[in-house]
Design brief:
- By secondary structure, the chain is an alpha/beta fold.
- Among the domains are: 115 residues, Orthogonal Bundle (Helicase, Ruva Protein, domain 3), CATH 1.10.8.60; 230 residues, Ribosomal Protein S5, domain 2, CATH 3.30.230.
- It has a 7-stranded mixed sheet, sandwiched between helices.
- Strand 5 and strand 6 form a beta hairpin.
- It is elongated, with a radius of gyration of 48 Å.
- The N terminus and C terminus are likely disordered.
């Protein structure tokens, strides 16, 4: 036998009167104009940077003051909160009080040309050394040419050559004389080679004539030739010795010349840098020795005017890597694009005849070395995103030295540069600027990150609205207008900007610290003032700027509004439906956020599945949304299943929703829809709902309340305001209301309402116009209440699944005349 469905008399419920809705004055906050003691912002003292945040300021002061390894600073906070400006201002006061760090130069290593030597010099001495050496080399180049071509030196060389040639000629004459004794003549050929010619009967014979001799005469010539061989050997050896001695004498004269040319100017330079360390003295010694040993390559030749010719003096030049000659205090480097080479430096190359060459003068410092002894500021997201940067930076900080190398070498791949410059000791304060999310991700996943950044300076994106804060805000507005070359603002305009500052954080008690957003509004308000040919920015210009900023990015929102007007969205705003309610959501498209209603439907029937979240079943809901749905089961169980289990399947969903859903701000909405369907009581469709709910039935605050109210208002406005429409919000969200002017005007006219609620029971009474009901000591609800109808419906569903809860069943005390039938027969 089947159970017949129960029908409910919806007219038998106890009606209730809706409570008074909020006054429009409580849905915004304005600055009292008479409290502003200036006429225009031209009369207001400007700020040096931005409104300081005490917590972050104190953290920065401590982080910058502690000189310890790994005591680096992470500056966290939302974009546009003045992190960079406040940091820059603080560094501007701290850095000049610090000692100016050393210059750093690279010198050629005469012992190992592939390993340039790093040298620290007092500030400003690096470029001075480079200039002095350039002058020295220019002088040496001139003196070398003059001295080498000097008459005395050339005569000395010619004399040595002449004497060598004379000795060689004497030896040749001796050879010819001794050869003549054994009947041989010796002559020199065209290439300077020696030719031996036997003399027979007074005639010197050539090879053909020798061959033509009789055998006996030819054998006699060969016998005499054997006597000639030792004479030739002795001559060659003697001649080689003469050449060697002559060359040694030429080398001596040359070395003496080179010594005279180089030693004196280098000695003078050495005396000038007497106080410098041993490395520079060794460089000067190596320079003299190398010049003397390789004198020939410095001599001028026809390639001197060739711009692509290799510089013979390159080994003697200084590469100034870090120049602090103009630095006041400690250097402060803001690296805006920290690629590997911009941060750590690089080794450049030149191409000669298709072959790559490099030397120490082609080593380029990165911003890390430029910040040595001072402060390096980078954006954390860039460091983590760019290849090889974070790992190399950690290694650099761990070793406390900066090595300039190619990215391939740093990654352990094949070497590419041919140079391995000596690493440079470093000591600097690293400052990361980034968001809190990135900070927490790095903190959890990277042990080195936790060790490196011991100080976190956390910038808030809002400030509590006090008289002092408003005063500072006025100064900031004046500063932003001044810095952006905007016209001054009058008092009404300043009040509008301050109100917008509260609107941006959705709080009547706070102001936004996202200074970029405020500055952008001022820039556009200035544009509108100029278009109106006004010398002052007024409230109308500020409001127009805010309105047009919204309009530019509201295309998607407007298209959705068109779909509503065209009937593509199945939403109602002036009727009543059972199990149907308008939930409110916030959508974000780029920078634009807007609210729009979604139809939420619930259908309840016998079963054991409990509350079925259709979005969850198809993997379209997030964890927080799922949690909110599970809480509903706790509420229903607490209210209606103290002695027996629930026999219920309730399917709930966002209709016409085709994207992912998350958040629990619709959990009260779903519960209202379920209660409506269980009680068979209609919900007013002209009321939108937002708010999360806990298991006790208490309404909890949610975000985006202004967008949700305004989005629902515009939908109602598009369909026609009836005077009964409005929005239910958590009572805690009243302090967050900063509604648009048109919504407040409708509230004043009584055509739109906002009701703050604390519990589900309050909300259900506003939505249905019926009493929710209170449990008596037996746990039962009056039959003429909404909750009484829910209790009776749940009791009627249990027999369909037999004894699933044990124990007895709850009862509903019906009023006379109320119709209530069991869903099924037999128990």
């Amino acid at each position: 036998m089947t159970n017949a469905p129960t029908t409910f008399d919806t007219g038998g419920l106890h009606p209730v009167k809706r409570p008074e809705s909020l006054e429009s004055s409580k849905t915004t906050v304005q600055v009292a104009i008479d409290t502003l003691t200036f006429e225009t912002t031209r009369d207001v003292e400007i700020l040096e940077s931005v409104i300081e945040q005490d917590r972050a300021q104190r953290s920065l002061e401590i982080g910058l003051a502690i000189h310890r390894h790994n005591f680096h600073v992470y500056v966290a906070g939302a974009s546009g909160t003045g992190k960079r400006s406040q940091l820059k201002a603080l560094l501007g006061s701290v850095a000049p009080k610090r000692e100016v760090p050393s210059d750093w130069v690279y010198l050629h290593n005469f012992d190992d040309k592939a390993a340039p030597v790093a040298l620290a010099l007092p500030p400003g001495r690096g470029n001075k050394l480079k200039t002095d050496l350039e002058k020295l080399l220019e002088r040496v180049r001139e003196d070398l040419a003059k001295s080498f071509h000097a008459r005395a030196h050339q005569e000395r060389l010619q004399r040595a050559i002449y004497e060598g040639n004379a000795r060689s000629n004497d030896a040749f004459h001796v050879l010819r004389r001794r050869a003549a004794e054994i009947h041989f003549d010796i002559v020199t050929g065209d290439e300077g080679e020696l030719k031996t010619m036997p003399v027979v009967e007074g005639e010197a014979l050539d090879e053909k004539e020798i061959i033509a001799l009789p055998d006996e005469a030819r054998q006699e010539v060969e016998a005499r030739r054997e006597l000639l061989e030792p004479l030739l050997t002795d001559f060659v050896q003697a001649n080689r010795q003469i050449e060697k001695e002559t060359q040694e004498l030429l080398d001596k004269y040359t070395r003496d010349l080179a010594e005279r040319v180089i030693r004196k100017p280098v000695s003078r330079l050495r005396r000038k840098y007497r106080g410098c360390n041993r490395r520079l003295r060794n460089f000067f010694d190596g320079m003299i020795k190398d010049f003397v040993d390789h004198f020939a390559k410095f001599l001028p030749d026809e390639d001197d005017d060739n711009p692509h010719a290799a510089d013979p003096f390159v080994a003697y030049r200084v590469k100034v890597l870090v120049d602090n000659s103009k630095t006041e205090g400690a250097p402060v480097i803001f690296e805006s694009h920290p690629t590997f080479y911009r941060l750590f430096g690089k080794i450049e190359r030149r191409v000669e005849q298709g072959i790559y060459f490099t030397d120490h003068t082609m080593i380029q410092a990165g911003s890390l070395l430029s910040a040595n002894g001072g402060f390096l500021v980078v954006h954390a997201a860039d460091v983590f995103a760019l290849p090889g940067v974070w790992e190399t930076l950690k290694t650099t900080l761990r070793n406390r030295e900066a090595a300039i190398e190619d990215l391939g070498e740093s990654a352990g791949l094949l070497p590419t540069s041919g140079l391995k410059p000596e690493p440079i000791p470093i000591e600097f304060k690293l400052i990361f600027i980034g968001g809190n999310t990135l900070y927490h991700m790095a903190y959890r996943s990277d042990d080195d990150f936790r060790k490196i950044f011991q100080v976190k300076a956390d910038f808030d994106d809002e400030i509590r609205r006090t008289d002092d804060a408003v005063h500072k805000y006025v100064r900031f507005i004046a500063t932003a207008a001044h810095n952006n070359n905007c016209a001054p603002l009058d008092r009404e305009a300043v009040a509008a900007v301050i109100a917008h500052g509260s609107r941006l954080v959705e709080s009547q008690r706070k102001l936004t610290l996202r200074f970029n957003d405020i500055s952008n509004v001022l820039i556009e308000a200035n544009f509108h003032a100029k278009a109106d040919d006004k010398e002052l920015i007024s409230r109308v210009h500020v409001e127009r700027a805010i309105r047009e900023r919204q309009l530019r990015s509201s295309l998607i929102a407007d298209k959705m509004q068109d779909d509503l007007v065209d009937g593509q969205l199945l939403l109602e705003f002036a009727s009543s439906r059972i199990g149907v309610i308008n939930g409110l959501a916030v959508l974000a498209v780029g920078e634009h956020e807007f609210g729009r209603p979604f139809r939420v439907t619930a259908r309840c029937f016998a079963g054991r599945a409990g509350i079925v979240n259709i979005e969850r079943e198809v993997n379209m809901s997030g964890e927080i949304h799922d949690k909110g749905v599970h809480i509903l089961a706790g509420f229903l169980g607490h209210r209606f299943a103290q002695h027996t289990a629930l026999a219920l399947t309730a399917t709930v969903t966002f209709e016409q929703s085709y994207g992912a859903v998350d958040g629990d701000s619709a959990s009260s909405t779903w519960l209202y829809a379920i209660i409506s369907d269980l009680a068979d009581v209609a919900i007013a469709q002209g009321i939108g709902v937002t708010g999360s709910v806990n298991q006790l039935g208490e309404i909890q605050p949610v975000g985006g309340v202004n967008h949700k109210i305004e989005g629902f208002f515009r939908c109602c406005q598009a369909r026609g305001l009836t005077g009964d429409q409005g929005v239910l919000i958590p009572h805690q969200n009243v302090m967050h209301l900063m509604l648009d002017k048109d919504v407040r005007e409708a509230m004043d006219a009584g055509t739109f309402h906002v009701w703050p609620v604390k519990t589900i029971d309050e909300g259900i009474e506003i939505l249905t116009g019926k009493r929710s009901g209170e449990r008596d000591r037996r746990g039962s609800y009056p039959a003429d209440t909404v909750m009484g109808r829910v209790q009776r419906r749940l009791d009627d569903l249990r027999p369909l699944h037999g004894d699933i809860g044990g124990g007895g069943r709850s009862t509903v005390h019906a009023k006379p005349g109320a119709r209530a039938a069991l869903l099924g027969s037999g128990e």
